[in-house]
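=== RUN LOG ===
request id: a7f3
mode: sequence -> structure
chains: 1
length: 109
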Amino acid sequence: MTVEVNARHKNISEGFRDYAQTRAKKIGEAFPMVESVRVVMDFQNNFCAAEVIAQRKDETFVGSAHTESSMKAAVDIAAARVETQIRKKRAKAYVEPARKAAQAAEAAR
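=== RESULT ===
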């Protein structure tokens, strides 16, 4: 899995870069089907914004967050949103075939 960390409008310290990489690696460990994760940090006046983009075979999951407090909080919120999207998609993938099978069995009666 590849992890890419970028920043807009400002250079980021190694501490932020390492934190974002470890948070992105956690997504890859939790969901092995994810092929790449990109973290984009943005600084605008007093706001910190983070965007986490996770890609797998044919799908892209995007989570973004804006906070006033810290960049770490923004990265955590954005990563949590991506994880939620992946979980929902995975749940639908398992539920939909079961529902169709149940409907076919009901129709066969």
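=== NOTES ===
The chain has a mean pLDDT of 88.
The chain has one domain: 2-108.
=== END ===
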